[in-house]
Amino acid sequence: MNDKIKNGLQISVSGIRGIYPDFLTSEIVFNFGIVFGSYIRTKKVFVCSDTRTSGKSLKDSIITGLLCTGKDVVDLGIAPTPEMGCVIEKEEMTRAAGIVITASHNPQEYNGIKFFSEKGTFLNTEEMKRMLDVYYKRAFTISKEPGFLSFMEYTDKYFSNIYRTVDVERIRAKKFNVVVDVCQGVGAIFTEKFLKGLGCDVVLLNKEPPGIFAHNPEPLPENLVELSETVIKEKADIGFAQDPDCDRLAIVSEDGNIPGEEMVIVLATRDILEYHKKGGIVVNLSTTALIEEITRALCVSVHRTKIGEVNVVEKMKETGSVIGGEGNGGVIFPDVHYGRDSFVGMALILEYLAYREKCLSEIIDEMPKYFMIKKKISISDRQKVEEILKNIREKVSGSEKVNLEDGIKIIRTDGWVHIRPSGTEPVIRIYVEGKNKNVAERYLSEFISLLSG
Ligand code: MG
After folding, report:
1. Which of the residues 10, 34, 66, 333 could staple to 71 if both were Cys, CB 3.0 to 4.6 A apart?
2. Ligand 1 centre and the CA of 333: distance in Å?
């Protein structure tokens, strides 16, 4: 791999991302098929892709690589990332691994690869490192006997696994009116069916043409304006937005307000703790402090981890937690499977609305107020990122309450600031949360000036 391509690929625990075909080429994807096939011990590997137009050819490249190593490949077609976790965990635990061709919430021009181990979860840092060793040392194994390719549909069974964990009758009885912005992603194919199974009337936004995104597909408030307007126009009970591979979810309340993706894990957690079972919760360091607020009275423990789904999942397993996730709209409910899942998120939130018999804006209003700002700062020179972080560490250490597990998190009495390099893009992420907008904005400008200075 030449240096230009190496620099254009982002490699992290979330997998591999790059612009197609400038950096993420068919050849690289084929090579990762061989690498993963050489690394993973299972005989069977499931493969699927999101709706991106480069998805079909890249999926064929990865399949060819896997077959070369003697793996039997099961092609699930276009499918949500969480379906991959579910099919491995529920049907083939320890007997199959998986690969999803997706760049998740990244813009249109990107594609990528997510790797699932035989546990049905993403490769963790250590596993990813061992697989990349195979890649860089070119320690591939080509089999004399190529593997066998078959095809399978699993989405209906995946949805059944979700339905059986919630009170479907209670949700159906409410006949919720729901608008979903699927942003031409995998949700464009499956979400209407899923919600009709819960008795909802469904309006889909941005359904066609698959893979050509009408807007930046990251479910951030600035990308949800059309959803908000449509929720009001349709007199809907709630609006949802899914990212293109359907692991992240954002919401809009019935009055058009955009509480944003942080509220997703908060509402899902309340549903589980108030109506399912009490137990521990795991969220990452960047998730809203509202989680501690809503769980305090219930006397359950909250664990915080480094960013990255697999870090949250491993902590959930270790602590036997009943729910977990990431503030970026990722809900993990182990009764379905150990992975972020926007369909699970929708089901739990609709269930909570059904049980509470209140509208979403009222439920949100009754909770303490927090204001969060999420910024990305592009850094052209990657080496500069470490230098900037080192300077900030020196400035805050000693005088502030600081957590250095993942980047730098500064915790103050009325809010917090979390600064870290992104694993998937050449940017520094700065998240601030305060008890009101002024506090959050003050913290943001204070630390942005440190970043640029
Ligand atoms: Mg995603």
Report:
1. 66
2. 16
Digit-by-digit pLDDT tens for the chain (453 residues) are: 555 556 688 887 778 999 999 999 999 999 999 999 999 999 999 999 999 999 999 999 999 999 999 999 999 999 999 999 999 999 998 999 999 999 999 999 999 999 999 999 999 999 999 999 999 999 989 999 999 999 999 999 999 999 999 999 999 999 999 999 999 999 999 999 999 999 999 999 999 999 999 999 999 889 999 999 999 999 999 999 999 999 999 999 999 999 978 999 999 999 999 999 999 999 999 999 999 999 988 889 999 999 999 999 999 999 999 999 999 999 999 999 999 999 999 999 999 999 999 999 999 999 999 999 989 888 877 778 888 889 899 988 888 999 999 999 999 999 999 999 876 667 899 999 999 999 999 999 999 988 775
CA dist 336 and 86 (Å) reads: 7
- Residue holding tokens 């690394």? 39
Whichever domain contains 423, its CATH number is 3.30.310.50
- Same domain? For 198 and 297 the reply is yes
**235 and 379 inside one domain:** no
C-alpha–C-alpha distance, residues 415 and 400, integer Å: 12
Name the active-site residue from 14, 49, 54, 104: 104
423 Cα to the center of ligand 1, angstroms: 14
How far is the centre of ligand 1, averaged over its atoms, from the C-alpha of 247 (Å)?
A: 5
Same-domain pairing of 226 and 168: yes
At 209, list the tokens: 């043409």
Tell me how far apart the alpha carbons of residues 424 and 11 are, in angstroms, rounded to a whole number: 7
Residue 341 Cα to ligand 1 middle (Å): 9
pTM: 0.95
Same domain, 253 and 289: yes
Q: Is 104 considered catalytic here?
A: yes
CA 202 – ligand 1 centroid, Å? 22
Give the count of domains, the chain: 3
